[in-house]
Amino acid sequence: MSSHGNEKGYISLSDYLKDRFGQKVYKVAIDGGFTCPNRDGTIGTGGCIFCSGRGSGDFAENRSLSVTEQIELGKKRVASKLPKGEAGRYIAYFQAFTNTYAPVDRLRKLYLEAAENPDIVCVSIATRPDCLPEEVLDLLVEVNQIKPVWVELGLQTIHEKSAKYIRRGYDLPVYDKAVAELRKRDIEVITHVILGLPGETREEMLETVKYVGESGVQGIKLQLLHVLEGTDLADDYKAGKFSCMSMDEYVELVHDAINILPDDMVIHRMTGDGPKKDLIAPLWSGDKKRVINALRKRLVIMAMIVSAALLYNGNVRAEELTTEDITEITTEEPTTEQPKIKKVKPGIKIQIGNKKKETKRYKGKFKKKNGEIYFRCKDKTDRKNFKGGFFTCGKYVYHSGKKGRLDRGWYKLNGQYYYFDRSTGRLAISKTVDGIKIGKYGVVKKGETISRVKTYIKARKVVRSITDPTDSKSTKLYKCFKWVEGFNYWQYRKFMTGYNEHPKDWDSVFADDIFDNHQGCCVSEAAALTYLARECGYDNVYICSDSGHGWAEIDGGLYDPLFAEAKNFNQYYNSAIRIHAYVKKRI
């Protein structure tokens, strides 16, 4: 069984959010007052067969309230859960009905109201794959420049008979196109799948999960089919047309589903429940805590059993394994037969130097250790011969040293510039990252502003030299702030002069004052800090200026190294925004 990143045996949404944002993040469900083409007559009028009267937004706030009011209500609900002295961070989840099904001007107003809220770290939008026209996709890119945007697509199943039964209203290629268009724009995608649809076999359900795992999305929600009063599905259930799974059956199915997903896929949900007052079946799903605990126990135990078996085969005594969940480990006698030679699928072709080459493909696992990600080959011979460099694993290309530590961030290798995702180490292909276009063979396109790439590389090196990989994101940022704050003031140019002379890369020109010369003006220090913040893992980073002074805005907080040194640290380190920016550029 794959480890999926930690001892749980999978990457949970909670763990992913803590790793990405540095603390626990809560979700606020918002009802934006939308409808659905499957209800207003465009496609149908009855909606999907399982959908409740609130468009699957039963836990969202009151739609008569503004987005801000709904966020404030959601914050009050979780206030008691926050550690003492900790400011809450939230995801604005547009949940009810189809949340891209409205005029763009209205969508922009709602999305921006959420994205510009300082307590919101991400905007998640649930919608249908057939409701993503070009103008909406462009809007999502716009919002993604302010806060990360996730789009949640309701696929439910890949099987046509089931799609017709649930009245989904679109064909599978529509989903494929939606994923491709969103990923082309660097929008993260989460796919919803329902397990237990009437008439589907266990194998068919797992086929859907496998398809989603190979479709290029970043997350999945595994939703237990539950029957709610007032739905057309309830009528079929009461008529005896189908039955629901037992909890044991569901736990086993989810275990097998997670086992076939990519190691780095985030599991956003493993079950599902509706309002208890409306729940008809299965009644055991109403005890969500019990279900989650059963799922986690199964996944952890299976991960431990596999790990124990590997240790046992590696001459570690079974007595050294103290967990009471493992009672026996059996191993097969070694065979003397020669293994059959299997054809190895070629790796992904990328540009290395001036040539396009296929990378070597390996099977293996990724493991986080001391703040770094390491790759370990599955095959012993591959493990022995592994030299690092470019390689393919699954659907992605990576680059590592001889010991398997993945490179992350911007790099210059063999005379070309590459970007490896700061979280996963995946090589970016056919994407725009940090405003820089990357071609289909993984290298920065000609005509792009290479000076900005070079500045990112300098920033990465600084972060590695002054922080520890195990530092939290906020600790890294603090160390970077103090590093910038320590340099002397020197004005190489006025802001407007630099802005007019270097319209495309004025931010990197100012940042390089600090990185190259170790001195600079307020704009220089602010620019350098924004590049460092990106390398620390912050997404919502801006350099700001009122034409006479410069500062940084990071996750909604004001950071001003020059004034922090000259005036008051607390007033200029992660303080409230109180200055109007004449120029504000996202880094």
Please provide a written account of the structure.
This protein has about 575 residues and is of the alpha/beta class. The protein has 3 domains: about 10-305, Alpha-Beta Barrel (TIM Barrel); about 350-450, left handed beta-beta-3-solenoid, CATH 2.10.270; about 465-585, no CATH class. About 35% of the residues lie in helices and about 20% in strands. It has 18 helices and 28 strands. It has an 8-stranded parallel sheet with strand order 1-9-7-6-5-4-3-2, sandwiched between helices. Strands 27-26-25-24-28 form a 5-stranded antiparallel sheet. A 3-stranded mixed sheet has the order 13-16-17, with no helix packed on it. Strand 24 and strand 25 form a beta hairpin. Helix 3 packs parallel to helix 4, helix 13 (about 475-485) runs antiparallel to helix 16 and helix 14 (about 495-500) packs across helix 15. The two termini are about 40 Å apart. The model is unreliable at about 1-5 and about 305-340 (pLDDT under 50).
